[in-house]
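Q: Predict the assembly, please.
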Amino acid sequence: MLKDLMTPENANVFIGKLGDILEKAIDAPLGYAINWGRIWSLWPVHIETACCSVEFGAASSPRYDVERFGIIEAFGSLRQCDLIVVQGTITRKMAPRLRLVYDQMPEPKYVIAMGACAITGGLYFDSYNVLPGIDGILPVDVYVPGCPPRPETLIQGCILLQEKIKRMKARKFV
Amino acid sequence: MTNEFLPPGLALQKADERIMTLNVGPQHPGSGHMRIIVQIDGDYIVACDPDPGYVHRGEEKMAEYRNYITNIPHLERPVIHDSCNVLYPYVLGVEDLLGIEVPERAKYVRVICSELNRCIYTMYWLAIYGIFLGHSTMFMWPAGDRELLIDLMEKISGARVTHAHFVPGGVRNDLPPNFEEVCLRQVNYFEKRIREYAAVFYDNPILISRTQDTGVLSREDAIRLGVTGSVLRASGVDYDLRKKEPYDVYEELDVHSNVMKEGDSYARSKIPWLDMLESCNIIKQALEKMPKSGSVRVKLKPNPKGKGLNSVYKRVESGRGSLGCHIVSDGKVEPYRLKLSVGSFRNLIALPYLLKGEKLGNMPSVYWSLNYWPVEADR
Amino acid sequence: MSTNTEQVTIEEKPAEEKPVAKPVAKPVAKPVAKPVELPAFEKNISDKIVEKFGDKIVVSFVKVNRVGINVDKENVHDVAKFIRDELNYDHVESVSGVDYPQDKEIEVVYHIGSYSDPSLASQLIVLATRAEREENPIPGKDATKLPTLRDIFYSVEFHEREVFEMFGVYFTGHPDNRRLLLPEDWADLPPLRKDFAIKGR
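A: Predicted assembly structure:
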């Protein structure tokens, strides 16, 4: 029966549908396992946008050691990353590049807005070259407030993101 | 917009069979918050065009809308891990405009904070330099050891990196009780610790073979290009503003400026480390000579004003070299114009010059040895 | 405007040296007392420039470690050449533009220092020149032009590029007038001009 339905023209559609059906089939029994796998392999893109990157660097220093939560292992290619930590101010020159980086990442992908500048523009609310927060260009999952946030705050934000992923439907991002 | 004014990378170029154009950044571990457009022939760089401005936040325009006191928090954001030094010229300039004399103890507290911050900045820079040369130990050690000094600054000002501790008229708060002993203990341990870096990093034959004789800047070119700070002193020019134009109490302290003659990446990366040892020395001297009690702040009137049309240019030696602040006041509560002349921006001009003829693999070592912090350069 | 600057900065001179005692009113009343106050080394430098150029320049202030010189845009090139060749100054620390809408002029201030001469290490020459200001600027195509100093001081290259995009002052003869810090699609006024208002202010 499948053979009759499938023609070279609609083969792509058909395989896509098949994927959806498979997803639905495995979602209930395997969703927990899929999410569990995603939680412990959150790899951020190495994109620094402003001064919060100092505290981002300090978070992976020996004192804070954020890698023990299985979160931050920077220095990967962005094609293998699933987390983007927006580290501070996004200027008008950086915004298109940030969106470009986000678009190149594979699904599923999560966004953490780190610092007051990334959330609302912060101290630079009246600057001519700064976006008032990144909500306009990226869908944000977790906001980490502070100017700059302490590394503990960033770690807590990452743990919040893990909690959030746990409750997500696994197939949402496929 | 004609071709002449097009920003870097947008102008159409003639296709060439040999020359390939490569964009390094802004999403690239080796570039920081900027883009470097390099043209390579095989493995060799034939031209380089830095494209900064990804963190240009308009600090100078914002400063024209805020008064002299509310300018403090945002003016330290260009280099948050060196925030005392980046505020220093501004504070000196405003004191000059308002005609304030600072208490003696405040000057010593400033010197101590400034030297602590220089170490904090340099340790972060060293961590980044280490990791981009593939030396993971040199990321972990400095990143962990700088927390010692961050703890000290946290005791003084209450914040980890953004202290906003310097204000026109002195410093915001006095030192906490018992600070001198804690500071001396931490600094002694810190000094002992960074001396160990020589064995792991600076005497490492791999590092030496990677950085020696790459990106050589001769003495004449360093002077002609007007570079500053560690880049200048690595090329054999003895120019340290703490000695040449002493501000606050630096003339009462014994400051030694470190100079190397080679002018290559190795020398440029060693000078900041030697400076940290020197900073420890200065902190110990300042702790000894500091008046044990006294006021640390002259109270200002609310909304202080400059007198008439006047301009002042003050400069200090920051972690990245000379850092100047040009304030033009017209007698209002806000500055009429404020210009930060920062070391990173001045050192950027050396990058195309140094990279020409280098191998692409040497780019990270040359670029990071310039002691460059893109957020500061863009302001 | 330049005379005004001169008087005011003369007032400031005591404050520069001894900020404790501030007899602001006295030097205004007696400008004759001025030469006594001036630091000798800096006066010597300014005298050399005055001797060479005479009335083409105005010495706007002589403070400790700073000598301020105002010059027309026609002569700025010659004065800079003299400062480099005869006075041993060799690099520019900072180039800042200042917008004066009431004078219809934009001032460009060069802070020139010296590495090679140890006696000048703490000295800076503050060389100020003024360009015409247009009400509706078309950067690069209007009358707001100055001769570049890049052929004299190589280190002004990026600074002048920055002044061009921030104020619209085109530097004639500068080899590289592309945009530096602002976004590629910036089509507004040059942002550091006084008539460019930031949002909400």
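Helices of chain A lie at 2-5, 11-39, 53-59, 95-104, 116-120, 151-167. The interface with chain C takes residues 91-93, 125-129 of chain A (CB under 8 Å).
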